[in-house]
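Hey, can you fold this one?
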Amino acid sequence: MDRLGGIRLRRPVLSIDNAEPAGETGMSETKKKAAAVAEEEEELLEEPVSPAGRLFREPHFSCYIVCTLGVAEPVDLPAVRAGIEATLARHPRFCSIQVLDELDKSAKPMWVRTKVNLDDHIIVPDLGPTDTSADSEKAVEDYVSSLSTPSMPMDRSRPLWELHGDEGAEFRPRRFVNRTISLDDVKNIKNAVGCTVNDVLVGLSSAALSRYYFRRTGESEGKKNIKVRTALMVNLRPTPGLHELAKMMESGKNNGVKWGNRFGYMILPFHLAKHDDPLEYVRKATKVTRRKKSSMEAIFTYWSADMVVKLFGIKAAASLCYGMFSNTTLSFSNLAGPSEQILFCGNPIVYISPTSYGHPHALTMHWQSYMNTIKLALAVDETQFPDAHELLDDFTESMRLIREAASRGTDKAQDGP
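Sure. Predicted structure:
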């Protein structure tokens, strides 16, 4: 018997209609009942979990996303609750749970709508005045890092999200740190070298890791063949970028907006070396990334992973993906954010700092642009990187050197021969 009582409801087309019916000031009792029935049926809707979603629920590859939002004003908890109840709690991915029919061995997990109890998801931690008075940023950093401990798994019987305010590397807690750099500086370097913003960030990362490596090892001469392999995530959506929630909620329309994870990856080498010209890091990164972009590597990795899931099942795909992450050194991701300031439940957002944990990498880099800044968020395994803030200092110093080198090159070009 079907786990929903032997009845499988036909899925209606999802849509958002804010217009009031013409000539009516209110809704009749019949329409109210029909709306209530439709809402109840909507809760029972099932949608297959995507291959990537199934992969992330595997025991040895359980990935979580952590995003820290800096706000300009103290949090108004009632306003936050009301805002989340009206928006996030109605989002299909934030009001659904993964359900698996255990009686059917061939069954695949499904997304099933459920009632959202905000008290289960909104958590107000008691950090204490002694924790926040001396160093508020350190207190937040310590608290966010505590969320990555294996002893705090998320309850799969409810939607997999929470809002917190006021043996292998994948099983060890992470330290989450971040640093802000100027987007204008990155664009000036981009124009000086003739590359993209992503090329500049890859070159900057290579320069910072080089400084960190040679400082930690004490080597004075830079070897030529030191490389670290990076798993670079690539968005394969037909229409990349930010989409309005209303468009995301629409179905049955050919607007190129789709649900689910659609990304491949590329193995990108980071060269660790010492260069007299700091811009050489960006030039080398540009050369490598251009070659990678012209290849079909990201599309092939996505296609092959999808085929492995279909032919051999999700456990084989999880094992393959785990092996890929285990044989690379770090993860790298770059995400373009809003160019104008946005609000969270009426509170202006100062910065956005996303990151993740649960995969077997001791170092994960996330670059997130927002307004005229770029936030670098690092998730580090402290047993491998006990000095995460010094690593951030290496990024800051590398950025300064590359920026000054780009400025000198621009001045020479303007002066002419």
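The chain is about 35% helix and 20% strand. Let me know if you want another pass with a different chain boundary.
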